[in-house]
Amino acid sequence: MGRDSETGWNIAGPLFQTAQTVPDHPAVVVGKATLSYAELARSASALARVLRPRLVTRRVGILATRSLAAYQGIAGAAWAGATYVPLNLKWPAERLVALMKELALDALVVDRNGARLLDRAVLEAAPKLIIASDDAAAVPGALRIGELEDRGIEAPAPMPAEHSAYIMFTSGSTGLPKGVVVSCGSLAAYLHETRKWAGFTTADRVAEAHDVTFDLSVHNMFLAFEAGATLHIMSTLDMMAPQRFVRSNEITAWMSVPTIVAMMRANGLLKDGLFPSLRLSVFCGEPLPIPAVEAWARAAPNSVVENIYGPTECTVVCMRQRLTDPPVATPKRNILAIGRPYDNFRVALFDGDQKPVPRGEIGEIALSSAQLSDGYFGKPELTADRFRMINGERWYLTGDLGVEDENGVFHHMGRADNQIKLKGNRIELEEVEMHLRRTAGTDLASVVAWPIVDGSAQGLVAFIAGKDGDGAALQQAMMQSLPRYMVPQRVVFAERLPQNANGKTDRRALAAWLDTDSAKGDAETSPQAVVA
Ligand code: AMP
Q1: 432 lines ligand 1 (CB under 6 A)
Q2: Which of 262, 207, 259, 261 minimizes the C-alpha distance to 238?
Q3: CB proximity list for 149: less than 8 A, separation 6 or greater
Q4: Is there a domain that residue 184 lies in?
Q5: Residue 453, domain extent
């Protein structure tokens, strides 16, 4: 964090400093294109000069990812003292329009792929000031990043610690995603704790496997920029063959969701000794199966391997467990423990009345720290529901179930609600159901995560009761309002939906029916068999 007693703070401050110390060192590499630290700082400074006089809400949308423009846009927005708001390129137009209206952006930065999404409806909802990458198709009235006036590198605007650094969207149960607002102070606290163990230097070549809409990108980007490391951005194609990317770029630091390891193992790609260049491997976002992490450790013999845990609402992560020999395993789950909290965190395990459970019992993981987000953008009720004052302290209720063992190590024990992770994407099943019901024109509809392999969801299945229909047409219609990864891969028309003792749809019974159905290999059966 750029801290200066006179100028205040700016999250781009470290980038500004790095551009002075190692100006010619590569900051971001995308395919064959590279931006040095000086080049990145120059374009961020030029962008900031355009943005600064236009800031009203101080929010700048980033409709760009895995491109130089995405990083120029983020750095430029930060430099200007704005809040950067990544918008997902996988969102359909309807969702982009709804969120842009809600956000009232001052400006929008687009790369080539982002520009393609600017149809008439999106342009109408977008701010007047659009800044496009040089390789984007023409956008009416837009400025080009490469054509902005270059007056050298000016210092970034000082901002107070409570200023919002970014807003990161994640699935919300009411139909639209919810925006997690993270302050500069929370980000500073995160970096302070994380640099202690990540230890980035100018010698590091860091693989960026995530879109900038995912908060793991915050970790890589800000740690790299302050240390002068190089970010190597993976394309969607690189994600299919990560082994090639890591080897050809001699990557030293890797971070991803565990799903990628599972995928490599399934394809027989994770060979012993494959990654000699890696010194740090970090996994996050989902339970980390022990066989998978051990296979990775054999593939990366010179690497420390860490499992980190945390929701976006606590600024990336707050707990960490190193892979040891033997591993610290979570009983009966064959996954690695989530470990011990960061020094700046208090962790509690609560019962349903927010009272601590005795050690050794399962409770909801609650977190308290300077890293906690300010809450959800424009959603005071939801914020009050998840961020609670308890005995004079502000806690975030994660919805994760956990247990603390006799050594003070925490273990993840699943969820207390219907939030799932699908290939790293955080999804509230209720959000998918809301769209399913609207599209199918019935309330008798439910969605389950299925199948579950090694504790991880592999897909979504929709159930619709009491009517027949065209599953493919329904899926197509859902894609108008949901990103593809949230559209169920299969639609089952059933006579009725099973109910549990509380009269709610029994998702467990539906999943059990799918298990039986797939074991039988008989697609013609109907889930009426599971109706009590
Ligand atoms: P996100 O906000 O997308 O980072 O998702 C946060 C959620 O992912 C947490 O609340 C957990 O449910 C899950 N999660 C994150 N890290 C881990 C981990 N290391 N092990 C198990 N679950 C995790």
Answers
A1: no
A2: 207
A3: 46, 49
A4: yes
A5: 429-530
Query: Can the peptide bond before residue 356 be classed as cis, meaning omega within 30 degrees of 0?
Result: no
The CA distance from 87 to 44, in Å, is 19
Q: Select from 168, 211, 283, 309 the residue to mutate for testing ligand 1; criterion: most ligand atoms less than 8 Å from CB.
A: 309
Among 193, 209, 233, the domain boundary falls at 233
Closest atom, ligand 1, to C-alpha of 288: 20
The CATH number given to whatever domain includes residue 386 is 2.30.38.10
Q: Is the pLDDT of residue 462 over 60?
A: yes
Instruction: Give the domain-ending residue among 415, 440, 467.
Output: 415
Expressed in angstroms and rounded, the spacing between residue 169 Cα and the centre of ligand 1 is 15
411 and 442 co-located in one domain: no
Out of 3-17, 246-260, 443-457, which region has the weakest mean confidence (pLDDT)? Answer: 3-17
Is 180 found in the same domain as 326?
no
- 528 pLDDT exceeds 80? no
Cβ–ligand 1 contact at 258 (below 6 Å): no
> Does the beta carbon of 86 sit less than 6 angstroms from any atom of ligand 1?
no
- Give the pLDDT confidence of 205-219 residue by residue, as tens digits: 999 999 999 999 999
Single pTM value for the model = 0.94
| Identity at 421, one-letter amino acid code | K
426 lines ligand 1 (CB under 6 A): yes
Report whether 364 contacts 414 (CB < 8 A). Answer: no
**72-84: burial string, b at 16+ Cβ within 10 Å, e else:** bbbbbbbbbbbbb
Closest CA to 195 of 163, 166, 229, 167: 229
Tell me if 354 is assigned to some domain.
Answer: yes
Extract the tokens encoding 465.
């009761």
Q: What does the pLDDT look like over 81-109, one tens digit per residue?
A: 999 999 999 999 999 999 999 999 999 99
